[in-house]
Amino acid sequence: MYLDPPRDRQRKGVCVPQTILITGGAGFIGRAVARALVARGDRVRVLDSLIEQVHGGLARPDDMPDDLPDAVDLRRGDVRDPAAVAQVLIGVDKVIHLAAEVGVGQSMYAVERYVSVNDVGTAVLFQALIQRPVERVVVASSMSIYGEGLYRDAEGRLVEDVVRQPRSGPDAPWDPLDAAGRPLTPVPTPEWKRPALASVYALSKYAQERLTLMLAPAYGMEGVALRLWNAYGPGQALSNPYTGVLAIFASRLHNGAAPVMFEDGQQLRDFVHVDDVAQSFLLALDRPEAAGQVYNIGSGVSRSVSEVGTLLARAMGRSEIRPEIAGKLRAGDIRHCIPDITKAQTELGYAPRRDFADGLAELAAWVAAQSDAQDRVAEARRELEKHGLVA
């Protein structure tokens, strides 16, 4: 956890507490960020609608997640509500904007919901910030905005405009090919790669990012965007079938069911512990160099989805449960995307510290103690198939 006094928050050697608003701060990543901010002495306010899909049975107005510190000022409200947003901005120094609907697959049929929460919500936030500006806004963007990651062809040339094509038959490769039919090799994706928006979720996250970087400086504020890879760790929403892949796998294994992997399970991703993600938000909140910038946030280590599923099953003591390889493509999914985190390391001082094996063991121990993890993967898959989004 990043606890060193940031340079621009020190006055005569004393770290000056600030009031930080986290929209969507009762979610998985938001709670980790809130814990880190409280630990270093900041005042934290959270605006969160506490929707059932993410938070389950937090039905009463005074309910709050167990791992959200008592010191947090939790306000229940919708980021699309101008009155609620205006109220929570009173006395705030900086904003971390995490409020969003999350899920590539669901976004492809719940279009109005995703665009409304993610983009209209961001617009409402900035409409309020015009009247009550803060020092800096850090927005959670997503690796999904890249679409396919960066590749290298057989001649060693970088290829950044790969677009997935329908497979020509059941024996055709899942991996993208060049014009001559040769396989392309995935390489770490830097921030300069042009976006290739393959889902409604990706489109909405890109809009959040651009609104922040456009409007913040126009009104005397600073904007920063963090493009997050697959965060994992204790506290994930195990009953949400549209959340992170490790949480979905963990829920299945916890209930004695096989994790379902689309395609052949060899898609490459980066899995980053939520504590490292929280570190990145604190750095982006504080570092002067971050103003106006975009950063990739991951672990810097690529792994196949199949490998991760196998390692998680072992950590949970469920090695006998073999993954189900669906052999189908879900609309909006990309094949490979792994991050180049050099810029975040160089400019922010970001350094992912959590070992993956230790992180999986920690996640497995936490999942074993949960009694309310509902497996809704089959329900989510039926919904995708009903809309013709799995082929």
Please describe what this structure looks like.
- This protein has helices spanning 28-39, 52-55, 82-88, 104-107, 111-131, 200-218, 245-254, 274-286, 305-315, 342-348, 356-368, 377-386; strands at residues 10-11, 14-15, 19-23, 43-48, 73-76, 94-97, 136-142, 151-152, 158-159, 185-186, 222-228, 230-232, 260-261, 268-273, 294-297, 302-304, 324-325.
- With 391 residues, it is of the alpha/beta class.
- The protein has one domain (7-386): NAD(P)-binding Rossmann-like Domain (Rossmann fold, 3-Layer(aba) Sandwich), CATH 3.40.50.720.
- The model is unreliable at 1-8 (pLDDT under 50).
Write down the domain tally: 1
Corresponding CATH superfamily: NAD(P)-binding Rossmann-like Domain
Rg, Å, rounded: 20 Å
What is the distance, rounded to the nearest whole angstrom, between the alpha carbons of the first and last residues? 42 Å
Topology pattern, helix = H, strand = E = EEEHEHEHEHHEEEEHEEHEEHEEHEHHH
Task: Predict the CATH topology.
Answer: Rossmann fold
Largest sheet: 7 strands, parallel
- The first-level CATH class name: Alpha Beta
| Strand neighbour order, sheet with most strands | 5-4-3-6-7-11-15
State mean pLDDT (0 to 100 scale): 89
Question: Which range best describes the helical content: under 10%, 10-25%, 25-40%, 40-55%, 55-70% or over 70%?
Answer: 25-40%
